[in-house]
Amino acid sequence: MAASLSRVCYISLHIPYGQAWAQDLAAAFRFQPFAVRETPRVRQLALRQGAAVFIVNERLAPRHAGGSHGDFLYDVDPRPALGTASNICFEVDDVPGLCEQLQRRGCSLRVPPTEVGDDGGSVTYGVASSIVGNVSHTLLDRSRYRGPFLPGFQAIPGAPPDAGDQVEITHFDHITCVCSRGTVLLPTLLLTRFQHLKGGQS
């Protein structure tokens, strides 16, 4: 039986050094920061509204040649950082099994199945390349984790509650990707095509 994708966990943005997009998400769309991971080189800030979560990845200093490729946990470092969505994370029930299936279909793994844990439990994740330019896909099993977000992230004390205005975002309904002519994304990610036509036909 094929391993299944259960839902989108988060979408991550890699922003060019020196730009501040987290404030825009918070101000314009009322996303609230709730967890952060910070090292001397990078900051990963998680923001949410409803079940919709963005991770904003930013460098705290310019990246130098020969720098670490593993600075960003649960992700890879796109070069150059184009200031767009660069990773779509799917929750799955069997990360090693799905990674193996993807490799058999010709997909390259940027990060092999890896376990990360803390006092809240552990998660398993891998990162696969996609045919969509600079976009990668994190495959994540967090069924064994009971912490606030993901191991390595710290909850932000006193994070403000939802603003409570009329702007309400509950979840990601769909994601649109632009592929090169002739490429097919569906078999690579074990997805199936569907369409809804006028009159209820599908």
From TrEMBL:
The keyword Metal-binding applies. The keyword DNA damage does not apply. One of its GO terms (molecular function) is 4-hydroxyphenylpyruvate dioxygenase activity. Residues 7-142 form the VOC domain. GO terms for biological process: aromatic amino acid metabolic process. It comes from the Eukaryota. Its cofactor is Fe cation. Keywords: Iron, Metal-binding, Repeat. InterPro entries: 4OHPhenylPyrv_dOase, 4OHPhenylPyrv_dOase_N, Glyas_Bleomycin-R_OHBP_Dase, VOC_core. Belongs to the 4HPPD family. PANTHER family: 4-HYDROXYPHENYLPYRUVATE DIOXYGENASE, 4-HYDROXYPHENYLPYRUVATE DIOXYGENASE-LIKE PROTEIN. This is VOC domain-containing protein.
